[in-house]
Every structure is written in structure tokens, then in C-alpha cells.
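To make this tangible, we now present a fold written out as C-alpha cells:
***
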Amino acid sequence: MTGPRRSAPGRARKLARIAIALGLLALLWRAADGPEAARSLAAADWRLLALALLALTLQTVLSALRWRLTARQLGITLGTGTAIREYYLSQIVNQSLPGGMLGDAGRAVRSRAHAGLLAAGQAVVFERLAGQIAMFATLAVAFLVTLVIPGGLDWPGWLIPPVATLLAVGAALPVILLAGTHMPGATGRSILSLCDAIGTALAARSVLPRQIVLSLGTTFCNLAAFDLCARAVGVDLGLAAVTALVPLILLTMLVPITISGWGLREGAAATLLPLAGVTASGGLAASVAFGLLFAVSVLPGVVLLWVDPKAARHDTITNAPDPGMDPGDPLQNPVSGRSESGLWNKFQRKTSFDRT
């Protein structure tokens, strides 16, 4: 009886998030002319949707390469194929469960053998952080440009303060973090160690150009995919809307109160895209198309689970070195073997992820 009682709150939270997503979508169906949005989706141009799917697939590959690069800086060696496979597996969990991070936690657990769980967790978090920094920078530049230059977006007065506050807080976080390194005692040392790890993983001279290219690449793919989905349902956003409004829409997916951002993303699209001359139903249709394509784009992860279900049960990732690697380099020579501690199995039971 102890186990079911312990898992009941978790199930209740999942059901609550599903209910919130469905409730928001039901409200939007009534408020944003759902039938018209449905007609737009039914008449969508499949060629543009195919291009959007290609952009989302490329985004996954670039994200996996960014994780591989970040992990290597922290002493974790991953083959390219392994990194892509693991990224797809994590996306399946992220799409299936609330919060959008449990799949990333599993990715960290399975890659911990090379440098420990702390470094593996940092590699996953820093990789995600790099992508958010690129999206944040795109939003910041587009917001300032469209705010200052005539002919851009007509930002309403109610929206400028929250967006400006978001950008100010985001810009202040690195300053606050650096200031924290001067705190006395263990707190200051911990923050300094964290800053050193971030600098090594993301900003070291040898990796910074590649981190920038990969992160801007993933941002471009996400924005392009949304724009292509919008065009597929008959909505022409324009560059200003794609770079200034779509990042705000996609950022709502980070709020962990629904499943994979459903409902929140559609509400933001129906509210914000009319600023670019789009109808609320057009914004709703574009966001639904993007959400469906995003779900389809992670299906290779399901195929991987079906072909090799053991891959998701391994507690640690074990790889043969990539061709051309120096076996004597501790950053390149992977640690062989497999842990039998069962942490990944516990993680799977916790997330109730059904591999079958």
C-alpha cells in the first residue's frame, strides 16, 4: 500500500496538467474560432509541413551535437550516433510527460559513467541553457529593433513592460551569478565552481564558435518550423513576427503546468500573432500545426525503442571511440563497462514511461 500511496500525488499532478491543457484548448476553441482553425488545418499544404518536419529533425540533430560538444568539455565522450539516439529518447519522454525535463534527466543518468552524475547533469543543463540563450538573444534583438524602428510591430502598451522585464531579468542573471562568486564560504565556492563549469562547457575559446553556431542553428530551425507551419495553414507572419513574437510563444512551452506546452502555446499564439495582422484562429491553427509536427518529429525515438528496447534500460552509456580519437586523451577515451545500480530502472518507474 505504501508504493501506490507514494505515487498517487504524482499521478494527480499529471492528470491535473492534462486537464489544464485540455481546458485551455477548449477555451481557445470557443474564443479563437476553433472551427475556422480546424478548416485551416484540414487544408494545410503538406509540402510546407514536410519542410517544417525537416527543420525540426535538423533541430534535434544539432541539439544532439551541441550536447556532445558540451559533454566532451566536461569529460564525457559520446559518439555522434549515440548522442542523436539519446536525444531522441529524451524527447520522447519530454513529449509524453509534464515538465519537459524528465527525458533530459534520464539522458544525464545514462551518461554518468564517464565523469559522474554531477558532470553528466551539468552537460545536459548547460546544453539546454545554450539553446535558451540563443532564443533569448534573438528575442531581445528583435524586440529592440521592432520597438525602435518604424514599420515593425505595433507593440501594445500592456505587452511592453512584461517583455522588457523578462529581458532585463534575463540579462541580469549572469551579473548576479558572477557577483555570487564573491560570497564568503561554501556558497561562494559552489557558485564559482558552477561558473567555471559553465565557462569550460560553453565559453572556452576552443568551443565558443561551435556553441554559437549550433545554438543559433537550433533557434533558426525552431523559428523556421513555426513559420512554415503558419504558412501551411495560410498565415503569413513576416520576419518581425517570426523573430519577436514566435520566441515568446515558444518560451511558454517551458512553463511546466501542461503537457509539452499544449494549451499555453496555443493561447500565446492566438493572443500575440494578431499583433502581426493574423486572426486569432490563424494563430491557433499555426500553433496546433507546430505542436503536431513537433510530436511527429520525435517519433524516431519510438522506433529506436522498438528496435532496441535495451537502449533505454541501460544505466550508463558505453561507446566505442569514434574513428580518429586519441585513446590516451582522457576527454576522448570513453569508460567502458556498465553499472548495474538500477537507477535508470527506478527513473523509468518514477516517470511511468511505457516502452512497449
The mean pLDDT is 83. The chain has one domain: 48-314. Residues 48-314 form one domain. The longest helix spans residues 117-148.
